[in-house]
Design a protein that fits this description.
Number of strands: 0
Shape: globular
Distance between the termini: 41 Å
Oligomer: single chain
Radius of gyration: 19 Å
Largest sheet: none
Order of helices and strands: HHHHHHHHHHH
Helix content: 55-70%
């Protein structure tokens, strides 16, 4: 069955880069960029960055962090939370220097930041599958906002792929959720021999599962259902966040008072 949620996610990724410049202009003119930064309400990194660029243009991407925070405070009386500052800096780094794709530690910190989780740099908790799935999706969108219009998508380094696979394995998964399929071989290679065939069974079952019914589907306690429940949880988490992001973008271009 066709996955309408996945089609919607793909559509946002394809259309946002081409619409970004128009969104910046509209959001600056209608005051919605300012409103979003004043009242983020757990806004995603994409719309926080787009709002910042609507107010200050792309030059804000090249400012020091303290310059950004001081400008927002002095110009608009905005004092962003630590979590929202983390999202903005993670977004800017992904646009300007996407070491997220090849530096394992940067990947971990960026995942947490994009999910609004403030961490102690000395104590980095392991990334959850749903956190990594969302970060990979948002990273794709953010790369599309590169002002230099870089058309290439950086390749994921083998160390980062292995880290993702290890996190999935420790979470008990034998097949990766949407957005993390690039580590399928890494994950399969770490599975016990007797589970490798089961991984294909999980993949086949997940592919044919009606994604529209995921919120209402009940799962049993057998191996296959436990795996499908984990994949469904990640899928729903990303879909819900993407829906909120789409609503935030809608507000940025709203012409209603």
């Amino acid at each position: 069955m066709q996955d309408q949620d996945q089609e919607a996610l793909t559509k946002i990724a394809e259309e946002l880069p081409g619409a970004a410049e128009a969104i910046y202009k509209i959001a600056a003119a209608n005051g919605q960029a300012l409103e979003l930064l004043k009242n983020p309400n757990d806004a995603c990194a994409v719309t926080l960055l787009m709002s910042l660029r609507a107010l200050y243009s792309e030059k804000a991407l090249f400012w020091e962090p303290e310059t950004i925070w001081m400008s927002l405070e002095n110009d608009y009386g905005i004092d962003l939370s630590v979590e929202d500052r983390g999202k903005i800096m993670a977004a800017i780094t992904l646009v300007r220097y996407p070491s997220f794709f090849w530096d394992n530690l940067v990947f971990q910190r960026t995942v947490k930041a994009l999910c609004g989780i403030h961490i102690d740099p000395e104590s980095l908790p392991e990334c959850h599958p749903s956190e990594m799935a969302w970060a990979m999706y948002e990273a794709e969108l953010l790369r599309g906002l590169d002002p230099e219009k870089m058309e290439f998508q950086p390749q994921m380094d083998s160390d980062v792929k292995q880290y993702i696979a290890v996190c999935l394995l420790r979470a008990g998964m034998v097949y990766p959720p949407r957005g993390l399929e690039l580590v399928s071989e890494n994950l399969t290679a770490m599975l016990p021999e007797e589970n490798r065939g089961k991984a294909q069974e999980v993949k086949d079952s997940w592919t044919h599962l009606d994604k529209k019914n995921l919120p209402h589907r009940r799962y049993g306690e057998d191996f296959l259902d436990v795996q499908l429940a984990q994949l469904a949880s990640c899928h729903l988490s990303v879909s819900e966040k993407a829906q909120r992001m789409a609503e935030e973008i809608g507000r940025l271009v709203s012409t209603s008072s």
